[in-house]
Write a structure and sequence with these properties.
- The chain is an all-alpha fold and about 400 residues long.
- The chain has 2 domains: about 200 residues, Hypothetical protein af1432, CATH 1.10.3210; about 180 residues, Hypothetical protein af1432 (Orthogonal Bundle), CATH 1.10.3210.
- The protein has a two-stranded antiparallel sheet.
- Helix 13 runs parallel beside helix 15, helix 14 packs across helix 20 and helix 14 runs antiparallel to helix 23.
- It starts with a strand and ends in a 5-residue tail after the last helix.
Length: about 400
């Protein structure tokens, strides 16, 4: 299996996932992309280099999963520990060939200009990484004012803030270009939600098209799974465990080859929408309130909305987003009945339930295999899960438990 994808769309999907971490601010990565490309244009950099900065801006925070870390990013100019998400993001991108060229920029996008020079990094990379840092901090300063009429009143303070760090945090040449460009009201108004979305839509199909195979698609799934699973220590390796278990169950049901691999990819991606859920809700030791349950129910629909943007992934997007549907129509977000639910989605649902119950959670400890099977049998009687899939679990209980927790090679 191969699919032809626009790498800009792939970058936008990852950026959308990361921006969900902000919960209330879902445009930070896209605004940094627009800012960086605009300043690169002012500097007279080539269109290819402008596009490079645009894509790096989209993905600069791909190492961020926690809303707590996100609060540091949007509330402070600099803080101890900022480099951690840079290193994680760089590692994730380096593992996916089509976007690996962005990894060095992401690695250094919080490194001060004077430190970059001391590290002996080549000029193009130094300026690219530092421009992302500058654009990032500009957006952080201005972000509280995008939603009201105070944005233009904030311009002088933001310009002074960036200028005050000239030569230490930021390259003097970049500061000059920013100050020249940001004199115009249009520079700032272009960052408001309506106009930044228009700019993203205009650039959405401008990147290189690549034909990628299942191996690269799986690597993309792993990147997103690692971002999602790092959101809370309670969900560490959840998506990876669901993918392993779903692939194992599919194999027992006679599904092999590319079909099995597509199920694995969908399972890796199934919780991408959960990045929008605040850490405090995911880690709460209390029963969810009606409001908390309503908020939690948004995540599978968010998964659908994000993944369906990549042409060629429509089927995988649907399987991934159906993991909370039930055969009796009582699931969410689509309220599908049994006749509308694919076998692939049924497999992923059982794998998701099993893996979650096998893991430690803030409100309970990990459950034993026999107890998890009991829960699944109860769900089966309630027409929430597929009996044939549960029968596979029952017939291979030890192997399923090992797959869910990663203690087998698969």
């Amino acid at each position: 299996m191969t699919i032809r994808v626009d790498m800009r769309q792939v970058a936008l999907v990852i950026a959308s996932a990361v921006d969900l971490v902000g919960v209330d601010d879902v445009l930070h990565g896209r605004r940094v992309a627009v800012l960086a490309a605009a300043i690169a244009k002012r500097l007279g950099w080539s269109r290819d280099r402008q596009d490079l900065l645009f894509d790096a801006g989209l993905l600069h925070d791909c190492g961020v999963s926690s809303t707590r870390t996100h609060r540091h990013l949007v509330e402070e100019l600099d803080w101890e520990g900022a480099q951690e998400h840079c290193e994680l993001g760089s590692t994730l991108l380096a593992s996916f060939g089509p976007l690996a060229h962005l990894a060095p920029i992401v690695l250094y996008h919080h490194t001060h200009w004077d430190r970059l020079a001391a590290l002996g990094i080549e000029s193009d990379l130094r300026f690219a990484a530092n421009l992302i840092f500058l654009a990032d901090r500009v957006d952080v300063s201005a972000a509280p004012h995008y939603g009201d009429d105070s944005l233009l009143l904030q311009v002088a303070a933001t310009r002074d803030l960036i200028d005050s760090h000239r030569g230490v945090h930021f390259a003097p040449e970049l500061v000059e270009a920013f100050l020249a460009d940001s004199r115009a009201e249009a520079f700032w108004l272009a960052l408001t939600p309506e106009f930044v979305r228009q700019e993203i839509a205009a650039r959405g199909g401008c990147a290189e098209e690549r034909v990628i195979g299942l191996g690269e698609l799986r690597q993309l799934g792993l990147i997103i799974a690692r971002i999602v699973d790092a959101k809370s220590h309670f969900t560490t390796d959840h998506s990876l465990g669901v993918a392993r278990l779903a692939a194992f169950i599919a194999q027992q049901l006679g599904i092999e080859g590319e079909h099995r691999e597509r199920i694995e990819v969908a399972a890796l991606l199934h919780d991408i929408g959960k990045l929008q859920i605040p850490d405090e809700l995911l880690e709460s030791r209390d029963r969810l309130t009606p409001q908390g349950r309503a908020l939690m129910k948004k995540h599978s629909f968010a998964t659908w909305q994000i993944l369906r943007r990549i042409g060629g992934l429509e089927e995988i997007a649907l399987w991934a987003s159906e993991h909370h549907e039930s055969l009796d129509g009582g699931g969410y977000p689509f309220r599908f009945f049994a006749a509308e639910l694919s076998l692939e989605a049924r497999i992923i649902k059982v794998a998701d339930v099993y893996q979650a119950l096998a893991q430690d959670r803030p409100y309970r400890g990990p459950m034993a295999a026999a107890d998890i099977l009991g829960v699944l049998r109860g769900m089966q009687e309630g027409h929430a899960v597929d009996s044939a899939v549960v029968d596979v679990v029952a017939g291979h209980l030890a192997e399923c438990h090992a797959a869910a927790l990663g203690s087998r090679n698969s």
